[in-house]
Amino acid sequence: MEAFSFPSEFRTRDIATNGTTIHVRSGGAGPAVLLLHGYGETGDMWAPMAVELARDHSVVVPDLRGMGLSSKPAGGFDKKTQGGDIAGVLDELKIERADLVTHDIGNMVGYAFAAQNPDRVRRFVLIDAPLPGVGPWEEILKNPLLWHFRFGGPDMERLVAGRERIYLDRFWNEFSANPARFSEAARTHYSKLYAMPGAMHSGFMQFAAFDQDAIDNQQFLAKGRLAMPVLAIGGEKSFGATMAKIMSFAASNVREGVIPDSGHWIMEENPAATISMVRNFLDEKT
Q1: Residue 202: exposed, middle, or buried by beta-carbon count in 10 A (0-12, 13-18, 19+)?
Q2: What burial class does residue 95 get, using C-beta atoms within 10 Å of its C-beta: 0-12 exposed, 13-18 middle, 19+ buried?
Q3: CB within 10 Å: which end of the chain, N or C, has fewer?
Q4: Measured between alpha carbons, how far is 102 from 49 in angstroms, rounded to an integer?
Q5: Would you say residue 1 has pLDDT above 60?
């Protein structure tokens, strides 16, 4: 199977909701699980996970607003709004309740959805990225590796136009334990998607919304921590056990998970360990 091949029975559709159009892959049968990707990738990152989970789950894999094959609207990149995108996708698919598995920016969208719709989330897995305004957020922002959080605007877009691969290579290399594990095929695949009209602008807007996200998240926190079981996973060479510490500020039932021999790009660097850890958590009955 090719790296980005979903099971043959999966179908793709474009779901119009919440002022945008979300590209969605779905298939399988059983309890629903929603997989949300992050920056530098698209829903395609989840193909190996989807193959495994579709054996006994209904798997839903969107591209986030402005990314991948979803539409590129002018705004709405705050994660509270994108939580509404996810609600609309699940409504269209007639899914009332689902497990969430999220990575990077997907963590932030997933948290906003869960905070607004706690009864619709059974279990929640967050992988290797912090939440704006939650826990040690201000300290995390001081890390020089996260310079891109403040990088954006029209001049920056002109700087990277036609050079998307150069820009993205920086993240694939610096945030991995072993850059060779982020394959040339994957780099080529994602670079083409991020070179689509409006894609880099949308990516910059995801980060530009962090200040608003922090305000929204503080309001969510004021209403109480998430109650559903949460698995907070970090790559050993990235956030590691810090993910669980971050999520302890936002959820009351948090378990720690660390993917060995991996940086940020867990599905490229150690997919077997990641899939096993996620499946074991989702399979628990309580």
Answers
A1: buried
A2: middle
A3: C
A4: 12
A5: no
Using a pLDDT cut of 70, give the percent of the chain over it: 99
The mean pLDDT value for 6-20 works out to: 97
Q: What is the mean pLDDT of residues 198-220?
A: 96
- The full DSSP string for the chain is --TTPPPTT-EEEEEEETTEEEEEEEEE-SSEEEEE--TT--GGGGHHHHHHHTTTSEEEEEPPTTSTTS---SS--SHHHHHHHHHHHHHHTT---EEEEEETHHHHHHHHHHHH-GGGEEEEEEES---TTSTTHHHHTT-GGGGGGG--SHHHHHHHTT-HHHHHHHHHHHTSSSGGGS-HHHHHHHHHHHTSTTHHHHHHHHHHTHHHHHHHHHHHHHT--B-S-EEEEEETTTTTTHHHHHHTTTBSSEEEEEETT--S-HHHH-HHHHHHHHHHHHH---
pTM: 0.96
Q: What are 168's two structure tokens?
A: 């993205």
Residue 141 token pair: 């922002």
